Amino acid sequence: MNNYHTHTYRCGHGYGSEEDMVKAAIDLNMQELGFSEHVPLPFYRLFLLKSLPHTLGSLHSFLSWCKAFILNGPGMRMPYKKRKEHQKVVQELKQKYKNQITIYQGYECEYFKEYLDYYQRLLDNQEVDYLILGNHFDRYPIHSYYYGKKKVDDEMLKHYQQDVIKAIHTNLFSYIAHPDLFMMGRNKFDDLCKEVSLAICKEAKKYDVPLEVNAGGIRKGLVCRNDEMVYPYNNDHFFHISQEIDNKVILGIDAHHPQQFNTKDIELLNQFVEKHHLNKINKLTFKKGNSH
Ligand SMILES: [Zn+2]
Ligand SMILES: [Zn+2]
Q1: How close is the Cα of 244 to the center of ligand 2, in Å?
Q2: Domain PHP: where (predicted)?
Q3: Cβ neighbours, 10 Å, residue 86
Q4: How far is the CA of 23 from the centre of ligand 1 (A)?
């Protein structure tokens, strides 16, 4: 397989250098490897300041906000000024390992409307080869608006749908990472979950944006939800819908540690794909935004 979803220690919650990840991918005979760190954002502190009033209802949210503000990024993303260093390392690795593996530079991005022009510039300036959508947050990168939190209410879920669909329309994102992340915060795949999933799958099909089957969800193990044993994401009901719509799907390791490149997880990803008869692709076509 190829993998276009790779983090490093630079995001503040991962382990291993860029080179550690390359070596781990080569050990698994991968042909293509893409780095997709959580996108570093310019004027990040200003963006965080705007979000401050939204954190005041939750101590967890406020404390993680303080940490992000002080460190200007980590533990969610590398500081903006570090991006050149990361990109330089990836460039050097592209050359060093060019006879063994093809390496690409990407980032994993939320749909933050303030930053869409910046995302387009990253592609236009060829700072990156591709971007993927990892829509972790609703409007601001704060815990109370995290789509992977314990409880995602109906209003938040509707925002998720709207933002993912708007993101698809930008043509900036080559695939949608963990498209069903919201199921972390829903006990039951109810009518609204069904409606949201159907809308996302249909739009992704129309705009030819693949959906990811994500090893991060599998690494969390099976959990009991509404009397069913399911992965917290890579939800069976979501991917049943995507099979009916005939979406393209792609595997993603979502590696935060070199050991997460392993045959056992890849086997589980493939079992999930086979169970749902999904239309799996291996090679990603990079989208370049609407300015092209
Ligand atoms: Zn993600
Ligand atoms: Zn990720």
Answers
A1: 26
A2: 4-215
A3: 19
A4: 22
Mention the CATH class of domain 9-280: alpha beta
Q: Which helix (H) or strand (E) holds 63?
A: helix 59-71
Gap between the Cα atoms of 136 and 68, Å rounded: 15
Q: Does residue 191 have a pLDDT over 90?
A: yes
Write the CB contacts of 48 (distance below 8 Å, at least 6 apart in sequence). 65, 68, 69, 140, 141, 142
Between the CA of 8 and the centroid of ligand 1 the distance, in Å, is 13
How much distance in Å is there from the Cα of 5 to the middle of ligand 2? 6
Tokens 């709207």 label which residue?
A: 162
Q: DSSP for 24-50, please give it.
A: HHHHTT-SEEEEEEEPP-TTHHHHHHH
Segment 26-36, tens digit of pLDDT: 999 999 999 99
Greatest CA separation for the chain: 53
Ligand with smallest separation from the Cα of 135 = 1
Q: How far is the CA of 9 from the centre of ligand 1 (A)?
A: 15
Which residues have their alpha-adjacent CB atom under 5 A from ion ligand 1?
134, 177
User: Tens of pLDDT along 94-137?
Assistant: 999 999 999 999 999 999 999 999 999 999 999 999 999 999 99
Which ligand is the nearest neighbour of the Cα of 6?
2
Cα(255) to centroid of ligand 2, in Å? Answer: 7
pLDDT single digits (tens) 40-70: 999 988 888 888 888 888 888 888 888 888 8
Residue type, 109: C
Q: What is the pLDDT of residues 223-243, one digit of tens each?
A: 998 899 999 999 999 999 999
